[in-house]
Specification:
homodimer, 345 residues, alpha/beta, Arc Repressor Mutant, subunit A, five-stranded parallel β-sheet, 16 helices, 7% strand, elongated, disordered N terminus, DNA-binding
DNA sequence: GGTTCATGCAAATTATTTTCTTGATACGTT
DNA sequence: AACGTATCAAGAAAATAATTTGCATGAACC
């Protein structure tokens, strides 16, 4: 049997998602005939066994289930609901137990799994278990109790979940473009205001100056405007706004774009800030996470900064990286300081 | 049925880990007879099926496998190695395929699974898949390639993994004590130097001042010493050091302790800083994570701060919390500002 | 030389999938 | 409107495959 994608819901790399329109809700435009075509696809899939399915898989089982819901039959909806509600049961149950609980026959369960894009029932369970670790928790806005262990678990889970969602919604191409811009900039201005975004701006500075880039961070609206006005087209302006509604940042972006200065935004997609910037690195997390736990959102933003900084590093020193790491390792091993400065990372 | 703990590896809540000493390596002191006892335990487990497994399980399958390695037979080690190395294969393979690859018979695989505390082979696979999402990546220090998608995945995975490991090593009792101290402090001094730890100090200030606590953060060694000298026994000193070897911070802690001022350290356990502080909140991540990716470590520290701040919040306003959240929600809904200030969180 | 233990074989059990069939629903035709 | 046809869901039963158990063997270690 072949190896499958890290992100749940497998599929063959060759086929691409287009071959399974009804399985990939974002692309499906209408209901089509299932059975025979389905079988062919399964056959296709099976014949593609050698192919690693590492790429192209964006959906996890849960999302697929929710998105497919409308297209499932009554029995299948019952199965989906049981799985969704009592995930722990589903992951440990046999097909017979699950079928029993859903009041359907085992074959119906098998068909259900297939419809969701899984090869078999056990494949389904694996996908489920895999996503489950992080995928399904955001349903509960509150921790189970305020006992320390529960609070800790709640926070950790939400943070992991934020990362999971970030990854899923990540616009890799945009990040790549942003990294290219940054790597080629003569000077970088990093803007962000308020505890959250200013931390991101600082972090950007922290990460990028170590790569030898010229960068300054500012959380002061007036300074931001002045800097935007003073910047040149060979510079880059990068700004962060969690809400996407930082009017001052929008102004700075607008000003910069009028002067043909590249602008990059870390923010919610379709927000004013996003629209004002040339390149947007979208970070879209469900509201709940934002409101109650600023940290999980912040962690997602930090991860974006990290990705960005790593890509810039690779762009600046494409070959030297491995050597650089060795040097760093030595450096770190012989230092006792608290701040482990990283040269090329 | 009910939902279960985030941390992988199931087990019944009732039993507690003590009933399976050989499955929880930290407690196992020597090799013992396996088979019969094992069977009893499995039986126990099975009879406890209705029980939620929310607590008591600290180990994930991978750690168990690594820790048990010494006590496995030749064939079993072969199986373990295959699983450890080619986890993707293992998670998708049938028992026959796995047995084939390890050159053993299927029954041996079943026995192997049981020894690891799983009920059956498929239970093992579920545990595997479950932990896999986060648990197994730190073996690869480098991303698969420097293609943006791989870099992103690598970073996200490492961040999730850092959170996973943090959670596993978390000293909940210590955090609780720290939260109590902070909640009752007349004044709090938050210390940390270098890009990483100073961010944590700032973050602590950010989170705690909103709860109405008096707090100041400093990254200046001289100031830290002076503040430590000026503090009173009703105050609290909290400091962060990623390496645990920030000598200045050790000095500040020592000074404070001589004056009977409570001290809290966020740092590596058993480090000089940890030893100098009264309460240590240990953050122990494998070296690899620290050296190459500062962010994943930072994210773990941020999570600790988050947990701490939440616990303090609950301590300060035990009943008012729910109401407070409602107010917040209103506030947030009607604000357009970027910095979503949280009152009671 | 006996005990313990790992391990494979084969049988038994169990789980899963396939095939076949039925019944329901929707659609088009007369 | 009534009928026939196509489509599809879904279960029963059969077939297949996977997993586990019981037992026997042989190696290693007292």
């Amino acid at each position: 049997m072949n190896r499958m994608a890290a992100i749940a819901c497998h599929g063959s790399g060759e086929m691409g998602t287009n071959d399974k329109p009804h399985l990939c809700p974002r692309q499906s435009t209408g209901a089509g005939g299932f059975d025979k075509i389905e079988m062919d696809r399964v056959a296709d899939y099976v014949s593609n066994v050698g192919e690693p399915a590492t790429k192209g898989r964006l959906m996890d089982i849960f999302t697929t289930m929710q998105d497919e819901r409308g297209r499932l039959s009554q029995s299948e909806i019952r199965i989906a609901d049981i799985v969704l509600n009592d995930f722990e049961f589903a992951v440990n149950a046999s097909i017979i137990e699950l079928a029993g609980k859903a009041d359907v026959s085992p074959p119906t369960v098998t068909r259900f799994c297939r419809r969701l894009g899984c090869e078999s029932f056990s494949d389904f369970k694996v996908q489920l278990a895999r996503t489950a670790y992080v995928g399904m928790r955001y349903l509960k806005p509150e921790p189970k109790s305020i006992a320390p262990a529960d609070v800790a678990q709640d926070i950790i889970t939400k943070a992991q979940n934020a990362l999971f969602l970030l990854h899923r919604g990540l616009d890799v191409a945009a990040i790549e473009r942003a990294a290219n811009r940054l790597a080629g900039a003569e000077m970088i201005y990093a803007f962000g205001s308020g505890g959250n975004s200013s931390m991101i701006a600082t972090e950007l500075q922290n990460r990028l100056f170590r790569l030898g880039l010229r960068i300054t961070a500012s959380s002061d609206h007036s300074m931001q405007l002045m800097m935007a006005a003073a910047a040149k087209p060979t510079d880059v302006l990068i700004g962060s706004s969690f809400s996407g509604r930082n009017a001052e940042l929008v102004r700075a972006f607008t000003l910069a774009r009028e002067a043909k200065i590249p602008t990059i935004a870390l923010t919610q997609s379709n927000s004013p800030v996003a629209q004002a910037a040339e390149i947007t690195l979208p970070v879209d997390l469900p509201e709940g996470d934002n409101i109650y736990r600023p940290t999980s959102t912040r962690i997602a933003y930090l991860a974006v900064v990290d990705i960005l900084a790593s890509l810039v590093a690779y762009r600046i020193q494409p070959q030297a990286t491995v050597t650089l790491r060795r040097i760093k390792q030595q450096l770190v091993a012989h230092r006792d300081g608290d701040d482990r400065q990283l040269l090329g990372d």
